[in-house]
Design brief:
There is one protein chain. The chain folds into 2 domains: 112 residues, Urease, subunit C, domain 1 (Roll); 287 residues, TIM Barrel (Alpha-Beta Barrel). The protein contains 16 helices and 16 strands. With 414 residues, it is of the alpha/beta class. Helix 5 crosses helix 6, helix 6 runs parallel beside helix 7 and helix 7 runs parallel beside helix 8. It is globular. Helix content is 35%, strand content 21%. Bound molecules: N-(iminomethyl)-L-glutamic acid and zinc ion. Zinc ion (ZN) binds next to loops. Pfam families: Amidohydro_1 (PF01979).
Length: 414
């Protein structure tokens, strides 16, 4: 496929650039009036229009004229919980009435509510509903995703969720990474026996997950009222023996120590970070652990927005992701995330786009194949409608400017 007359080809980073830290995030190399050639599912070549392969050569390729339009590398959504059995709009109404996230969770809502619903759902039902959610996300420009377990909380249900994610990995046309999150909350029966549940995770679940190769990463919700730093440390230490690197939930509701314990264990990413202090920012300075920010969670829960500028001033790498889940973020729309990052985190459009593409790919260890326009990378991208400028994309929040989806070098129609 040959795409011609592209108003601007966005994210043409050097092939060997795999992640961007601090002020590097402001650099979003863009080629104006460009062409892009895709072959065998990969990016074959690109350049300015005056070097475009001649029209006779063009006849060998399906050609798309993208005059007035931008071509972006697809969004890489590195944090989601899209496998769940039922929505939780009743909690949405409780929130409007003034109840907080922790209050709802303490009353048996929240994650436990989702776990009860998931226990009775079949693998087939979970697969089908999650597949539909991901297809909707693909249509909004996402073409790589991380998916967590964590609504199982028993041996059987956690493995059931991970098998569903494995099937999504096999059947969806985009890269999928799986994260084992049994340590999402304490199930009711272990409410007063935390060590009992941790032992179950470490001695029974982890070996089974590793044996079936069901997970790429380990996650723990390290938070006041959930898993303490010591408990997180124990689980991450055990997971390391099975080569599962951490991607953890940290500092969502309090300065929990989650970021530092994640960094200590060489986490690929520490996610949320709505609550930070100077020590947290410094712990990520010049660090390979990526800070994954989830502004649509802040928006929905009415909690603080993360300190993106402070992180960038400390030369941290920031990724942006949706956190799509039925409790704290019932939305998988990366376009909205990028808009919120600009509006609420005060990220510049270039910074936000880098965070949602190359750094999102890095937060799934996928940036050798995804996240930018570079020769040899997977041809997953989207073409916008006719738009006046790059900044128009986040500016026009809540409206989709994504017109054509290309996955593995072919137009995707769902
Ligand atoms: N905070 C922990 N996990 C999810 C929410 C889970 C839920 O409420 O169902 C999150 O990332 O926001
Ligand atoms: Zn989450």
């Amino acid at each position: 496929m040959l795409i011609t007359q592209i108003k601007a080809l966005v994210g043409v980073h050097p092939k060997e650039t795999f992640v961007l830290h601090g002020d590097e995030m402001a650099q979003l190399p863009t080629l104006e009036n460009a062409w892009l050639l895709l072959e065998n599912g990969l990016i074959k070549d690109f350049g300015p229009m005056f070097t475009c392969p001649s029209s006779t050569e063009n006849n060998q390729h399906e050609t798309i004229n993208a005059e007035g339009k931008y071509v972006f590398p697809s969004w890489c959504d590195s944090h989601s919980h899209v496998v769940f059995a039922a929505s939780r709009e009743e909690e949405f109404v409780m929130k409007i009435e003034g109840k907080g996230y922790e209050e709802i969770a303490a009353a048996g809502g929240g994650i436990l509510n989702s776990a009860n619903k998931l226990a009775n759902a079949s693998e087939e039902e979970l697969f089908e509903s999650a597949r539909k959610r991901v297809v909707d996300m693909i249509k909004q420009g996402t073409a790589a995703i991380e998916i967590k377990s964590g609504y199982g909380l028993t041996f059987e249900s956690e493995l059931k969720m991970l098998r569903v994610i494995k099937r999504l990995k096999n059947e969806l046309p985009i890269p999928v990474k799986a994260t084992f999150l049994a340590a999402h909350t304490y199930p009711q029966v272990y409410k007063n026996d935390h060590q009992g549940y941790i032992d179950l995770i470490i001695n029974e679940m982890l070996p089974a997950v590793a044996e079936e190769k069901l997970a790429d990463y380990i996650d723990v919700f390290c938070e006041r009222g959930f898993f303490s730093v010591e408990e997180t440390d124990q689980i991450l230490t055990a997971a390391a023996k099975f080569d599962l690197k951490p991607k953890i939930h940290a500092n969502q509701l309090s300065v929990s120590g989650g970021v530092q314990i994640g960094v200590k264990h060489g986490a690929v990413s520490v996610d949320h970070l709505e609550e930070t202090d100077d020590d947290v920012l410094k712990s990520l300075a010049n660090n390979p652990t990526i800070a994954t920010l989830l502004p649509s969670c802040s928006f929905y829960l009415n909690i603080p927005f993360a300190n993106a500028r402070g992180l960038m001033q400390n030369h941290a790498a920031i990724a942006l992701a949706t956190d799509y889940n039925p409790g704290s973020t019932p939305s998988g729309n990366m376009n909205f995330v990028v808009s919120l990052a600009c509006i609420k985190l005060k990220m510049m459009p270039e910074e936000a786009i880098n965070a949602a593409t190359l750094n999102g790919a890095a937060a799934m260890e996928l940036s050798k194949e995804m996240g930018s326009i570079a020769i040899g990378k997977r041809a997953n991208l989207f073409i916008t409608r006719t738009i006046p400028a790059l900044a128009y994309l986040p500016y026009s929040f809540g409206q989709s400017q994504v017109e054509t989806i290309i996955l593995n070098g072919e137009i995707y129609n769902g």
